[in-house]
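Whether sequence alone determines local backbone shape is best considered at the level of individual chains. The sequence in question and its structure tokens are set out directly beneath this paragraph.

***
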Amino acid sequence: MKINNAVFVKSSPQWELCPQTNLPEYAFIGRSNVGKSSFINMITNNSKLAKTSSKPGKTQMINHFLINNSWYLVDLPGYGYSKTAKSVSVGFSKMISDYILYRPNLVAVCVLIDSRHEPQQNDLDFLFRLGKEAIPFVLIFTKTDKQGVVRTKENIDVFLQKMKDHWEELPLYFISSAVTKAGKEDFLDFIDKTNKKMK
């Protein structure tokens, strides 16, 4: 798949206010500074589509982007950032939870994981919640250009091994870099094949 058209549609503070559509949606989420905006901009060939920032918590609403007039890319607020007021953070948590649980055309949650770090408990907790609620998801390991190939593989293996403590079957995952564009074709191929199966 090649993305020829990516258009911002709407920012919504709650899932009931999201665009009324039957088109498939893929939601992107991860801890702050995981490289979510950079990944979105990379796969859409648009460096300004999702706002990047060095400050955690930049994304604060449910952001819908219409891709190729055939599916939606949904940019969700991150989890685990610490510099946002606790009361607001709780609101984000409910907003994210409600969208994921109740949005009928959500196909998969794309959870971004920083490949440079050991498994983080808030990542594992979030994935466990998705599994408990039977929400389909895939993993995207980001920032793989920041260390060598061997180190990246070691870190990913440790993360997947940690998941095996609670999972009988591991999810589909992608190894990516917004700098080298690694993983771009594989991920877009996954979306293309998934959308075709739904027709």
About this structure: DSSP finds five helices and seven strands in the chain. The domain at 6-198 is CATH 3.40.50.300 (Rossmann fold). The first strand starts at residue 6 and ends at 12. The helical segments are 36-44, 86-102, 121-132, 149-163, 184-198.
